[in-house]
């Protein structure tokens, strides 16, 4: 596939109108394959023979809900056999796997899609051939009766993300010329695969094949299959992950009929075609592709559609068995609290305990998909270092969790519980599907804690270490100015003079003490309670406890750069800046000492920030 490089333009207008590389590639496919004239429009259903052979559309939907479109992507055409995987998935969810699998096989037949032949058990070979698809429609009819077709139409609409209509002319044409499908239907009835009235079941089948879609629709439908049943555009969980995995399995082996082996060997993407000219391809965890071009090859597949799929797979090396995910990339950072403590500023006693026992808290930041092999690698990395008392798994960069990965992770938690190790999960909400999946396998475990913010998780773990080694964290104990790090080194007389300038202020929980952008007119020394310092966008910079200063940047900046709020009821010494400047003039030695202490505090913060940055950029 030859693709011309984009023209070199650098102006703002060119940047705004520039196309992503993938869209350029799809455009190039459209240009290259549009002149292809081989094949023939299906005419065994007379109404299909009226399709314009020049129509050609390509659409690709990503799993974040973006949809690329090139050419005739809004031209409606009938879904035909591309309905089969979706109705099979619907049947699995509606009637249960046991019922469906008791009457429909999953083996490739090697025969054309409309073959009047059953397997050795007198069941359809698979749900992708007409016999299996009619059996699926029969199962839905068995469950829903006269409402069966509407049930199917609404379900296909959820896959597409919009309401889908029916082409009544094509339906009538299919029904009039559908004797071969009637023969299949009666064969299924004879072998008790279909229990209901054959004519009623075939009416459902003919109508589902006549549902109108576009290339864009089938790209979104394919992406829903690739996204474990979640429509990436609407966010709706359309069907279960179990039904999706079984559907993709059958699409892989049988979706392209007697061309299926060649297809999976050369292209390697689960796909389904329809005689209306559509092809949809679903690459799990990657994308959904939909194409429309009415001319078909001898296998009943769109000629241009096949070429698009071949080009996409070859150009980007998308064969599903050619995956290069490396489990070693699943850990983005692995450290203890000695390298990266929480943003809470600790008192000297707490600092001493944490410095002596920093290895008791291990933090492992994970990224990407937590698959079976990735979780196995993480568990071995955890065991390779000395055993901690608490381990934090940060999942905020985890984009997906497979069921195998979740189960292995839950088993790791049970192993850690046996060693009395507390597990803390951050970056995952209890309302998320991943948490619910983990909860199924961790029921009864008492060693698991959850904090959405990593810093909150680290702070809680630090508290546990302090408690275990005899430290005390008393948020309500009042401290004196002599205990303030910023005032270290001042004499008793200097501290007394400074105290005479201070007023004790009280604050309620959540009360804003300092607002970003306000004039900096006071210094504060926290006397009791806890406050947190945040940027205007809500990002927390620090948590301060009694004995810590805040608003001290007033000594360097005329305006406040951050908000300070009380975490709980708090008291603080407030000293107006003008009074503090007068104190510095009266006590130059004390003023110099305070500025040196401030410089040390800023240096410590910079060292901590650099350490956190190094953790993410090392290795």
TrEMBL record:
Keyword terms of this UniProt record: Acetylation, Hydrolase
Domain of life, per lineage: Bacteria
Amino acids binding substrate: 81, 130, 174, 181, 205, 257, 275
EC number: 3.5.1.2
Gene3D superfamilies: DD-peptidase/beta-lactamase superfamily, Jelly Rolls, STAS domain
An annotated Gene Ontology molecular function: glutaminase activity
Family label: Belongs to the glutaminase family.
Record-given protein name: Glutaminase
Organism name: Bradyrhizobium valentinum
């Amino acid at each position: 596939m030859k693709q011309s490089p984009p023209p070199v333009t650098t102006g703002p207008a060119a940047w705004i109108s520039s196309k992503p590389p993938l869209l350029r590639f799809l455009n190039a496919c459209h240009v290259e394959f549009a002149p292809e004239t081989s094949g023939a429009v299906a005419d065994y259903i007379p109404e299909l023979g009226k399709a314009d052979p020049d129509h050609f559309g390509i659409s690709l939907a990503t799993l974040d809900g973006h949809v690329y479109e090139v050419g005739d992507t809004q031209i409606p055409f009938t879904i035909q056999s591309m309905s089969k995987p979706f109705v099979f998935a619907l049947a699995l969810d509606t009637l249960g796997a046991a019922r469906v699998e008791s009457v429909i096989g999953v083996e490739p037949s090697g025969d054309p899609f409309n073959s009047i032949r059953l397997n050795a058990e007198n069941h359809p070979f698979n749900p992708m051939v007409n016999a299996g698809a009619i059996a699926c429609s029969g199962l839905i009819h068995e469950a829903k009766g006269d409402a069966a077709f509407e049930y199917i139409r609404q379900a296909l609409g959820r896959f597409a993300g919009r309401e889908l209509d029916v082409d009544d002319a094509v339906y009538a044409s299919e029904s009039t010329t559908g004797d071969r499908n009637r023969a299949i239907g009666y064969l299924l009835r004879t072998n008790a695969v279909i229990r209901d009235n054959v004519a009623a079941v075939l009416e459902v089948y003919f109508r589902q094949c006549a549902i109108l879609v576009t290339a864009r629709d089938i790209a979104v439908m394919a992406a829903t299959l690739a996204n474990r049943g979640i429509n990436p555009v609407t966010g709706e969980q359309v069907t279960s992950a179990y039904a999706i995995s079984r559907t993709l399995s059958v699409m892989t082996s049988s979706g392209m009929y007697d061309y299926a082996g060649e297809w999976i060997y050369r292209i390697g993407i689960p796909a389904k075609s329809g005689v209306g000219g559509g092809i949809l391809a679903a690459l799990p965890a990657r994308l959904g592709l939909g194409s429309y071009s009415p001319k078909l090859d001898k296998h009943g597949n769109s000629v241009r559609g096949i070429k698009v799929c071949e080009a996409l797979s070859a150009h980007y090396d998308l064969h599903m068995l050619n995956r290069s995910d490396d489990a070693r990339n699943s850990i983005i950072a692995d450290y203890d609290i000695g390298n990266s403590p929480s943003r809470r500023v600790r008192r000297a006693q707490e600092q001493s305990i944490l410095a002596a026992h920093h290895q008791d808290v291990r933090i492992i930041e994970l990224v990407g998909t937590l698959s079976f092999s990735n979780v196995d690698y993480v568990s071995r990395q955890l065991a390779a270092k000395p055993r901690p008392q608490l381990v934090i798994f940060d999942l905020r960069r985890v984009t997906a969790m497979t069921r195998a990965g979740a189960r292995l992770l839950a088993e790791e938690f049970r192993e850690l519980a046996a060693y009395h190790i507390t597990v803390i999960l951050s970056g995952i909400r209890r309302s998320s599907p991943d948490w619910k999946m983990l909860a199924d396998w961790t029921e009864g475990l008492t060693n698991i804690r959850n904090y959405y913010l990593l810093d909150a998780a680290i702070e809680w773990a630090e508290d546990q270490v302090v408690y275990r080694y005899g430290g005390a964290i008393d948020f309500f104990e009042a401290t004196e100015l002599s205990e303030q790090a910023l005032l270290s080194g001042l004499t008793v007389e200097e501290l007394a003079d400074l105290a005479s300038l201070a007023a004790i202020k009280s604050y309620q929980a959540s009360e804003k003490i300092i607002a970003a952008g306000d004039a900096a007119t006071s210094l504060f020394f926290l006397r009791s309670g806890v406050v947190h310092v945040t940027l205007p966008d809500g990002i927390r910079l620090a948590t301060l406890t009694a004995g810590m200063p805040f608003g001290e940047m007033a000594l360097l900046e005329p305006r406040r750069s951050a908000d300070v709020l009380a975490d709980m009821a708090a008291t603080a010494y407030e000293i107006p800046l003008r009074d503090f400047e007068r104190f510095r003039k009266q006590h130059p030695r004390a003023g110099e000492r305070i500025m040196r202490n401030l410089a040390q505090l800023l240096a410590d913060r910079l060292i901590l920030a650099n350490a956190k940055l190094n953790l993410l950029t090392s290795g």
